[in-house]
Amino acid sequence: MTTHTLFLPGFHLATLRRKPRSAAQKLAEEKAKIRHHSLSQLGECFGRFIPRQELAISRQGQFSRRRLFSKENTFWGFFSQILDADGGCQEVVRKAQAFAASRDLPIPSGSTSAYCQARSKLTQESLKKILGHMADILQQQGKENRWKGRRVIVVDGTGVSMPDTPMNQMEWPQSGTQKPGCGFPLARICACFCLQTGALLSYRLGSLRNAELPLLRQQWDCFKSGDIFLGDKGFCSYYDVWEFQNRGVDSVMTLARRTPVEASSAITVLGPDDLLIRWPKPAWNKNLSYSREIWERLPEHLTLRQIKVSVNTPGMRAESFYIVTTLTDAKAYSAHDLADLYYRRWDVELFFRDIKTTMAMEVLRCRTPASIGKEILMHFIVYNAVRLLIVDAARQVKIQPRRIGFKTGVQTLRQWEPQLNQAYRDQREQRRLIGLLIEAIGASVLTSRPGRREPRCLKRRPKPFALLTAPRHQMVETPHRSRYRAKQA
Q1: Residue-averaged pLDDT of the chain
Q2: How would you class 360 by CB atoms within 10 Å of its CB: exposed for 0-12, middle for 13-18, buried for 19 or more?
Q3: DSSP 69-117
Q4: Cα–Cα distance between 139 and 48 in angstroms, integer?
Q5: pLDDT band per the 50, 70, 90 thresholds, residue 317
Q6: How many helices (H) and strands (E) does the chain have?
Q7: pLDDT of residue 86
Q8: How are beta strands 228-231 and 152-161 bridged, if at all?
Q9: Which contacts qualify for 339-343: CB closer than 8 Å, 24 or more apart?
């Protein structure tokens, strides 16, 4: 169209307009706008390991509106809360305020109410999918470090405590030896880890009444044909060995609740202290942890291999112990290799130490069972995320992932996080920082100190506080505590 005005004859209006934006330009601007209002800079490190659809805005219901604590911001806020040394909800709110100030956005309220309400909307199903996805990626990255080409899954249990609330006590009761109001709810966790990468593959949560072996049976689907199950004497069970064999899974564990077989009673002597034996089916009794129908289906004998391992390291508690395994091929799996594999079972204790001590999960904070479940899940997600960085760093420097300390990864990530959150960092600069982050983790290699002995004793004495022997509102503190006087002559 052409104008016919007096002052601007023949001036074409199209020249006053900008060119229409393409669909790609509109999408890029929308992404930049979302990123400008997002707390998810940690996603630059771990976004490729987490399914995007699990953090996307919902079309309706929970997290369907764009708010400061959206589903993505809430997840990464929860992630940073677990990662931080403080670990409080107020820490996340202060971080959101500082983030908003750096981007000239309205400063949110200092109350933790909005964040806690948003965190309660996160579902355990969504967090479990994220944890499972990260575990699958870790398994793919750790294939080159497998033991004789096979994945080894090491299993163990541990305990955690939590605030003393009625709902927590109902779900996870305190020890029966403690008076009401004098103890804390205690939960038991049985978890499966990949021995090569340290990845947490699955877990089950129970109370003190739940033994570790029944909790392991709830995780049988975690094992695949060709895997090796590695456990201590608490998992030595005729039924479980048989069930694992049916699934194509071999077992390596210490002998318990049975007398070692002598060489004269063995099927074959494979070598010094190395016997091929026959395990008889246990007699039925009502105290077994499985039904009589299952007991009747068990075979009369299992053919196993028994290896006596002598401990020559000074200071170790045991001088010798017995390993039983379904790996009966002495040529493919020598006794020395199996003893060395069981020696590495101690790594699972270090995995739990990383989660409970380094990441402070030994005493949980939430006050309801639903929130406790999410807090445990998020600890495991952060744990696997740090393991992903360690595996990447180990691949770059061509060493085993177990040679890089977990605490090194946590400390490095804590110090790098504020730099990733800077407003002026573009994606190219952030990728450069992430590369330097992985390089810094790989530069800290643990010194190999085989045979080192550290007594499990405390040197620092506790303060002389009295123990709570009655509910707090009934407890009467000794008035003369810490002031003792000599008796009069």
Answers
A1: 86
A2: middle
A3: T-HHHHHHHHHHHHHSSS--HHHHHHHHHHHHHHTTPPPPPS-SHHHHH
A4: 15
A5: confident
A6: 15, 11
A7: 83
A8: parallel
A9: 339/307, 339/309, 341/147, 341/152, 341/230, 341/252, 342/230, 342/252, 342/254, 342/309
Q: How confident is the model over 7-19, as a mean pLDDT?
A: 53
Tokens encoding 72 = 């993505």
d(CA 196, CA 243): 24
Which token pair is 206?
């129970």
In tens, the pLDDT along 161-187 reads 999 999 999 999 998 888 888 899 999
Closest C-alpha among 250, 248, 229, 255 to residue 156? 229
Residue type, 331: K
Read off the pTM.
Answer: 0.87
State the CB neighbour count (10 A cutoff) for residue 249. Answer: 21
Domain boundaries in the chain? 25-124, 125-358, 382-442
Q: What share of the chain is helix, strand, coil (3-state, %, to 5)?
A: 45, 15, 40
If you count them, how many residues does the chain have?
489
Tell me which residue of 231, 211, 209 sits closest to 341, measured CA to CA.
231
- pLDDT at position 425, please? 66
pLDDT greater at residue 243 or residue 106 = 243
CATH 3.80.10.10 fits 125-358, yes or no: no
Give exposure, 73-109, as e/b (b: 16+ Cβ within 10 Å): bbbbbbbbbbbeeebebebbbebbeebbeeeeeeebe
Residue 423, pLDDT > 80, answer no
Task: Identify the DSSP state of 356.
Answer: I
Residue 369 confidence (pLDDT) above 70: yes
